[in-house]
Amino acid sequence: MTTMTMVRNEDAFLKLMVWTLFLSALLASLMLPGSAAAQALSTIRGAVTDQSGGVVPGVTVTVTDVGTNVLVRTVISNDSGDYEVPDLHPSTYQIRAELSGFRTFVADRVVLDGSQTRRVNVVLQLGEVSDEVLVDAGAAVITTDSGDISAKFTEELFDASPLVNTYYPQSLLTTLAGVESQMGSWSLRMAGQPASQNALGMDGVYQDGTVNLINNMMDFTELTMTAVGNTADQARISSFNMISKSGSNQFRGSLFYTHFNSALNARSFFEPSKLSAREHKSHIDVSGPIVRDRTFFYASYFHQNIPSASFNRSTVATAAMRDGDFSQLLAGPNPTPVIDPLTGAPFPGNVIPPERFNALSALVQEQFIPPPNLEDADTLVNNLGFEHAYPEDLYRADYPMVRIDHQISTNNTLYGRFIQRYTPYVLKRGLPGFDWTRVRWHRGTVFSDTHVFSPNLVATFRAGWLWDFVEDGTEVDGFTPRRGDQVVQEIGLQGVNPRELQAMGFPRMDITGMTSLETIAGGVKEDNHQLSLSNSLTWSQGRHVWKFGGEVRRVSRFDGAISEPTYGRFAFNGRFTGSAYADFLLGLPHSSERVDPLTDRSQVAYELGFFAMDTYKITSRLTLDYGLRWDIFTSPRFDDGLQFNWDPATGDVIVPPDAMSSVSPLYPQNINVRSGDVIPEIKWSNIRPRLAVAYRLQDNLVVRGSYGVFTEQIGYFDRLQGSGPFQIAETYINELVDGKPSFTFPNPFPADIASAEIPSQSIRGFPATTRQGAIHQFQVSAERQFGGLGARLSYIGSRSRGLNYNLNINKPEPGLESFSQDRRPYPQFIDATIAQENGASNYDALQVQVNRRAGPVTFDAHYTLQSNRSNFLNLENPYAPNEWHDEQYNTRHKAAVSTVIELPWGRGRPYLADAPSLVNSLIGDWNVVTVSYVQTGQHFSPAFSGSDPSNTNTLGGLPDRICDGNLPRGQRTVEQWFDPSCFVVPPAARFGNAGANILEGPGLNLHHLSLVKRFALQRGITLEYVAGVSNLFNTPQFGFPRGDINAANPGEITSIRTGRENSGPRMMEMTLRLRW
Fold it and tell me: Is the confidence at residue 781, as pLDDT, over 50?
């Protein structure tokens, strides 16, 4: 069987995956195994010695979860005195080490983060076993036994965060080392890698963008991010994983309410006045035992309410025009007579008799176009005012979540977690009565089973399901929007919607100078699923910890939306009468468009990953991690088989043999369509090595390094095209011959489709074999602990080769000859884009981090000096690509500091420790939390517009550079950020020589603060007040300036920066939280 046959045959491929996963699990259980989705699991290891430093084998080491009082694991130290406890869920543990003749060693409060390998060494003292040596381990401040660079934040930091109006984790991620927000975007980059190469996980189940709106931090206990050094059990080069809250032996709960009100905010720099906004958020959670020491639950509900309304203005015909009276157009210096298309003469008095009104147009005007209600009778701009009773986005959100943990036996534990997000929308359009609705459902489920076969052999199975559903046009909050098929039937429109498709919509009517009659096309926009199964075990043997495992992921998408021209699209521009609205009243569109859409289409893709790795503890101080990972990405496909590719060698469009009959007869005849293979071959050779080493020079000093190769993630459905020759919109231009139009309402289409104007076609193609690039990442770090402080100095780098990008190759070579379509290499197309496989990127960074995780002042401070360059950022000239330029979102210098400061007065604190209750309730238990960013600007490109000096039909682009263009820092202003005189339009016959991203944009100097006050109400019950302030000093954080040297005021900044750092004007919110 060929690989292509396997890809095309879904049943066979599913069987292949299921059998592969089963056999890998069986092999792992019989031989040496591993840890899938280790991003959610962690390890405790250490060495057992006596007071003289001699190793002590045969020591019983037990690990107990402090919260649940469950004995999680019992292991025995080996002949080298080492012990290893893998596949632990992040939590706080107690470690006990016992051996006859020695006092019992107890390490209390061992805080184990997600994806952490933590060393807890045991030093035994001679004595009775009944005596204990107690050590308070707390949280680790340096990493001693692995090669990754990771960071985390917890629910405590999130609850007190000054990042206002934020409940997703991405904002707090920007406070971690190696993470930066893309200016003007919500995407994040980690250690120089774009968002497409990062994995987003919840309880070890990764989303990869399928579902990204259920990761609400209020139901998660911590978030762990690994930017560098992911081991072979991880597919992506960078990742973050959220770990859900769980129950314990104590009944606990919390209830909070958060109020956000624009009255507390500052005005945005460029806004003449503050925009009104309010938001209410409330959350309740309860947890505890179902069966003590065995079964536990956590359940929560989050509700968000955004009461808001807006007043809107639109433009409609005047009251006189609605009656056919256009006499006002005759006034003024440029009178406009309204021409009778039947006679070619003006209508008398510029008035169209009502009997000449087209019946359909008159009905549309009566039912769907309201009369003006603002300004005077002859005003033709913003003369209609109406209120929309809902906000610009969602008006409500509901998040239920539940998790159950159960210990079947001391050797078998499992848990299941379900979370959901439901958000309804009622959104405005240009005219009242055209509002549209949307409902979004997002669900995530995970089931995990951990089985301890022996102290040295642990198996983990995990199943995850994610669902993302979006439907437009259903009833929301008692409102049902218009359905396009009903409107077509009501007004008697002919020639559209031959299959009588039912969905929200409207036969769009664009009337020049007026607000369009239109709404959003309805239907199921997304019904996306992601199912993942992983199986693995871990086997500790002597100095080795062997790991093997595998994962299968199925990703599917469904699109059932009804595209807009299904019910028709009509343009009225005054071509026939001189007035667009007069044309409308007469039922004479300039153009008519329709389409018979492809609907209810599903697409599917698969990903498989297998790994083998070993942790080799060469000595008590030297640890080596090495492994291999094999990633397989199948080629995506549509279930109906209607997909295509393009062959640049022949210029032919290729469709499957069974799809030839589905090619639209309207597809241009000058484009050759032939049958052939359209599904790319799979690349089977993505086998990537991973290597890491950690050497502890002293107990508080470690040198670490890692090297790994990661497979580029192209995107599950990037190599899938499904409309092209199968769905063609018909456009007809109306003509007036001897006073008779080609068509008019109610049937605005000619009988013969031969007169249809088919839009010019562009095409995209990709190679016959999909070859993912390779990302080589490496780092060297030195870490030192100074008491409660941890410090790290790292060099981080990556070299990415064979990256995929798209290049438009359908441009003629630059020259003096004027552009014409026949100069294109493929004159039958406008753009012809082909996937390239020679992209490269280089990333280099120096990073310093200092942190403290215990005490009255805790903080995380880091600074990064970095460079990030790629060779596919300037693709204007397909004959000379692959020049190296800075990545747009690279920040040369970035520093961030997060602090939690306990104010030093009140009970339990250095000052006024004996304060009376009343005094303590006022001055005690105050904390200050701060987040600060200081960084230089990201990059942007200069541009010119309006001309095509290269004669390639490339209007605008990069100019010529005649001097630097970056003004000295002291001369950069909002009015003039860069020097546009350093750039000129290129001369004829070539493209500009200015590079991409050569200008530096505004930096970031942003500080947030929150005040936290706790009140002890009764034993075990506390009330917490949090006042959070984002952009404390209301310092404007500016966006990119105008880069077009031909535009008005080039170099001027006109917008505020958007991103994940909460860089808008000062905002404030207040929270009351009750805990018990």
Answer: yes
